[in-house]
Amino acid sequence: MREVVYFSTQSGNTRRFVEKLDVSAQAIPRSRNDAPLHVERPYILILPTYGDGDPRTAVPGPVIRFLNDPHNRALIEGVVAGGNTNFGAAFGLAGRVVAHKCQVPLLHRFELMGTPEDVAKVHDCLATEMTDAG
């Protein structure tokens, strides 16, 4: 099964979603004062979407710092994004932004803490070989 790296805000919605997956996962630190995370194996990134629908502010800063490390960026294989459907077209926008910039697939979007169906879908993604990013 593929590795999981995730970022969760203080609300904890993304963390709770990852916990439902019942897989080994590494958290991206929230604070610049914490030691940075350096991955060693290919992974799927799970992250929440910030803000107001602006692609420039949708990706949390700690995720940007994590992906600015060329080694970490080279090992990303796909993205799963959390969000809130109240944001309409901006639902899961952070996932679309990261997938585009890193040239990997956006595998799934889930609302808030996700449903059992979301968990099953992401489990399938973690167990399936990635194809060429598009």
UniProtKB/TrEMBL annotation:
GO terms for molecular function: FMN binding. Gene3D superfamilies: 3.40.50.360. The lineage of its organism: Bacteria, Pseudomonadati, Pseudomonadota, Gammaproteobacteria, Oceanospirillales. It comes from Chromohalobacter marismortui. PANTHER family: PROTEIN NRDI. This is Protein NrdI. SUPFAM superfamilies: Flavoproteins. It comes from the Bacteria. NCBIfam families: nrdI. Transmembrane segments: none annotated. Probably involved in ribonucleotide reductase function. Belongs to the NrdI family. It holds the Pfam family Flavodoxin_NdrI.
